[in-house]
Write a structure and sequence with these properties.
Layout (H helix, E strand, L loop, with lengths): L5 E6 L4 H8 L2 E3 L24 H8 L11 H13 L1 H15 E7 L5 H7 L6 E6 H5 L6 E4 L1 E2 L16 H9 L1 E2 L8 E7 L6 H4 E3 L5 E6 L8 H11 L2 E7 L6 E5 L2
Parallel strand pairs: 6-7, 10-11
Antiparallel strand pairs: 1-4, 2-9, 3-8, 4-10, 5-8, 11-12
Length: 257
């Protein structure tokens, strides 16, 4: 996998919480519940693939502790309940993931026009460039990588018990989205934690070295440029201002010294 050196996040200058990334080097590790895509991180194994008694037993046996007294017939009945009523299982699974999964979403490019519109308040905001190596070590993330934009992935429940397939299954759950989102070029860092994560737990603070550059949007308020310039100078971050490319649908940028 080709790992970028710098990854980017678009922010709204008018939002106080977004400004804290500049003032306090503060970032928020999202929950799936925060996402605007109702399918994002909402991918579960297809238990209907366990369509024979033999497949059900093969799936269940590795999940039982060696000294378990759990009746296999009861376990099969529970599994069949999931197969017959997947919505109930999904609701439980998603609620659990919302409390235990932390995600930091970035992109591999700073000049994606729709992202400036969608996430930086119609080009009035700013884009932060992170040193990925330093960012990934600022919190004990367990996975990182580009998203796959494809059809809805099928996950065989039995693959979760296979050490050779566990990683690929895990990526399908957190790093797959519809190809309609491909323009975002998203890169994602994630971790599943045993404890429930509250809002305070999800706020982490980076060293100055984790951030390497700031790009101001095309329509960033002129009166506020000096404020960001002072912050960037103090923290030794490169500062740019996005500009139109003449006669093209594209962006370039100029360094602000």
């Amino acid at each position: 996998m080709n790992i970028p050196q710098i990854v980017y996040k678009f922010r709204d200058w008018k939002c106080t919480y977004h400004r804290n990334i500049l003032y306090r080097n503060e970032i928020y590790l999202a929950s799936p519940a925060d996402f605007n895509d109702p399918f994002d991180c909402r991918i579960i194994p297809d238990y209907s693939l366990l369509d024979t008694r033999e497949k059900k037993i093969e799936y269940l046996m590795p999940l039982r502790p060696s000294n378990s007294e759990i009746d296999i017939e009861q376990a099969i009945n529970n599994l069949e309940g999931i197969i017959k009523n997947p919505d109930k299982y999904e609701k439980y699974r998603f609620q659990f993931d919302d409390k235990h999964l932390v995600i930091f979403c970035v992109t591999t490019k700073w000049d994606i026009i729709p992202l400036w519109s969608n996430y930086a308040n119609f080009h009035t905001g700013f884009c932060v460039g992170f040193n990925l190596a330093k960012l990934s070590s600022a919190f004990p993330f367990s996975k990182m990588g580009k998203l796959y934009y494809n059809k809805y992935p099928s996950i065989n429940p039995a693959d979760q018990n296979d050490p050779d397939k566990y990683i690929s299954v895990s990526f399908k759950k957190t790093h797959y989205k519809s190809n309609e989102w491909e323009y975002e070029n998203e890169f994602r860092l994630t971790r599943f934690l045993e404890k429930e994560m509250n809002l305070k737990d999800r706020l982490i603070y980076l060293s100055d070295e984790c951030i390497v550059e700031i790009t101001l949007g095309l329509n960033f308020p002129v009166t506020d440029i000096s404020e960001v310039k002072e912050i960037a100078s103090q923290k030794k971050w490169a500062l740019y201002h996005a500009q139109r490319i003449p006669m093209k649908f594209g962006l370039t940028r100029e360094r602000i010294e």
